[in-house]
Write a structure and sequence with these properties.
With 264 residues, the protein is of the alpha+beta class. The chain has 2 domains: 91 residues, Pseudouridine synthase I, catalytic domain, N-terminal subdomain (Alpha-Beta Plaits), CATH 3.30.70; 156 residues, 2-Layer Sandwich (Alpha-Beta Plaits). It contains 6 helices and 10 strands, in the order E-H-E-E-H-E-E-H-E-H-E-E-E-H-H-E. A hairpin with an 8-residue loop joins strand 2 and strand 3.
Amino acid sequence: MNYYRATIQYDGTDYAGFQWQATGATIQDELTQAIQKLVAGKVTTAGASRTDSGVHAFEHVVKITAESVIAFSPAELNRVLPAQIRCLEVGPCAGEFNPNTNTISKEYRYLFTNKTHVSEGERRFVANVSHQFDFAVMKRCAHMMIGTHDFCNFYSMGSNVRTTIREVFVCELSTVDPHSLFPNSELFKFPAELTECHQLKIVANGFLKQMIRHTIRALWMVGSGRITEREFAGYLNGPRAERQLWKVAPPNGLFLYRITYPTK
C-alpha cells in the first residue's frame, strides 16, 4: 500500500461533518470519491478530526491509503472536488502516521457577533447571539480553562472516550477583523462591512465531542448573567451534572484552524 498526507480546507455549511456516515453528504465521502477518479484501485481516508455538521476547517489533515501510487497535484484534485473543498497540499507519509492521535495540539477558532440584526452574508461563517455581554467576566472564565481539567460538563455524550480530562494550552477571547484570519483562502469570504467580530481561540491536546460549542455557550451564559462566574468555575472540574446545562452553540462560527504535529 501507499500512504499520503493531505491538508485540506472546507466550508462545512452543507455537509454533515467530516467523517463518513450512512445519511448525509460528508467531507470524507466527497474527498474519497474525488481521489478515486484520479487513481486506480482501493482508496481509504482517515481524518485528524470528525468535525460536526456545519463546522468548517481552515487546515484539516487527512491520511490517504491507496493501492496505486498517487501522482496528482493539489490543483488536479481540486478540479474534481466540490467547490466547497480545497486540497492545499499532498505528499507521501509513513504508514504508521495517524493524523488523529499523532498530534501535539489542535487549534479551533469560534467567531461570533452580538448584534440585534445580521445580514445573510454574515451568517455563513459567523454565529450571532443578540444578548449584551459582560466581556470582562467572559474573559476571566475563558482563562480559567487553561490547564488540565475534567471537562465532563463541557461535552456531548455519544462517543467512546476513556477520560474527559484534557489539557488546554490557550483559551482566549478577543475582538478581531475576520478578513485577516484566513489568508489566501478561496472559501472564507466575509462581507466588506463586517470589519469586527468576537473570537474564541482555544488550543488543546485534544477535544471531546462538541467541547468548543459547549464552551462558547457556557461563556455566553456567564456573559449574559444567566450563570455566575462562581457557577462556571464549579462546572469546570465539577461532577457531571444530572441534566444538560445548556444547548450547544451553533456550528457555523466554528473552524478547525490548525493542527500541530511533531517535527523530525
